[in-house]
Specification:
By secondary structure, this protein is mainly alpha-helical. 71% of the residues lie in helices and 0% in strands. The chain starts with a helix and ends with a helix.
């Protein structure tokens, strides 16, 4: 298994259980403990690399969906296509304690938060999002929706094919300017 796939799979498991043992983690992602240990000699190294992966994944997705410049509704639709990957990253970056506290990535994660808040503020200034709520509420609401969809899919309440539609309609109907 290549390193990126190993990190992606480890991130998905850790998003559900940050305290999972390395033996259980290896079993859940389908590799031997020695394979995991060869790639990540300690738990601290693994968490650091997973955090780095999560921060990079969020940036890649934000770039891919045109977060900073594309029309708000288009961004939300594209975000809906990536919402489950974002949810894994958000679950790791917002965990208690935040995984970024374990690494040198806190500033990068905070910069991403600011970038997302600028998106929310841009949506407000363009009349797409409600102006009677703080932009931070919009940002956290969208992030919480991503996490809710992740857990709803994992629990079997929502099928993966429904995720994009549910994300977009909930975002636009719930946060739309009135």
């Amino acid at each position: 298994m290549d390193r990126d796939l190993l990190l992606r799979n480890a991130a998905a498991v850790l998003a559900n259980d940050l305290s999972v043992s390395l033996s259980d983690l290896a079993a859940r992602i389908g590799v031997g403990r020695t394979t995991l240990h060869r790639s990540f000699p300690t738990r601290e190294v693994l968490l650091h690399e997973v955090a780095r992966f999560a921060v990079a994944e969020v940036s890649r997705i934000y770039d891919r969906i045109g977060l900073d410049e594309d029309p708000i509704e288009d961004v939300l639709k594209k975000m809906g296509d990536h919402v489950l990957d974002l949810a894994v990253a958000y679950a790791l970056l917002w965990a208690e304690p935040p995984i970024t506290e374990l690494t040198d990535l806190r500033a990068e994660a905070e910069a991403q938060d600011e970038r997302f808040l600028r998106f929310a503020a841009r949506g407000q200034s363009q009349g797409q999002f409600r102006s009677d709520v703080p932009d931070g509420w919009i940002g956290y609401s969208l992030g919480a929706q991503a996490l809710a969809l992740f857990y709803a899919v994992r629990s079997g309440f929502v099928g993966e094919r429904m995720v994009q539609r549910l994300f977009v309609t909930t975002a636009l109907d719930g946060l739309a300017a009135r």
